[in-house]
Amino acid sequence: MAALGDACQSARDSQLIPCKRAPPNATSRAIALFDLDGTLIPWDCQLLFRHFVVRREPWRALLLPVFLIFTPLAGLLGTECMKRIFLSYLWHVDASQLAAYAREFAQSLMPAIYPQLRERIERHRRAGDLLILSSASPEFYVREIGALLGFDISLGTVVTPGALFPDLENHKGAAKVARLKQLLDSSYFIDGRLPGSCGYTDSRADLPMLAICERALVVNPDARLNAMALANQWEIVRPTRPWRSPLDRALRLLALLIGLGRDPGGLSTNCSNAARP
Fold it and tell me: Mean pLDDT throughout 250-267?
């Protein structure tokens, strides 16, 4: 857990995103922190939203080469820069139209929420816990998704759309912890951790978030995260994902990226999602 502690320390040193502080009168509530992409749904919402928008404004597919040209330089440019380039398909989008898309998109995701994770959300709600959705996806639709699922707070990457490469503050990794420390009253934290909290994720990028939680649950973890979960006695769930094979997944990803097909992500059908052994 030492590595997790170091990750958490780096979050304290990172730049904070200005936002209102939560009132200190509810610090006795336990906190449930949920990631979104790959945790509540099987896909990265950024691909899903791109497909959603391009299906409605097909001309935006012509901006795909802008992203593809820079893809070989991803390692050099970094995640935040590549995210700005990826969002080039929203160039000159009308703010009111984007808000409408975000609301409609959030609604379209509801059948795809893993039942096991929806049940966890409801369990925390019944217990009176503070529900926080914390995602690296753009906040303009994360807020809408969180509202439909009943989250108390929904946080994502703050994006200023309009420019070809929009300004943003990437809400990923240690930045999630930094923003929580800005948002929540300090009395929520004891020795840098959130007493009684539980973190939910599918990704090692969220290790800083898990570092401040007392308990954790990981969703369809890769081999390294699975090993960490076993070592730390974190709960593991494996909901069924919509693709049938690696090739099927690759074809669906391509369709989502290009804007082909009505529903390559399989969002309109709620699969059985039974946990695999």
Answer: 95
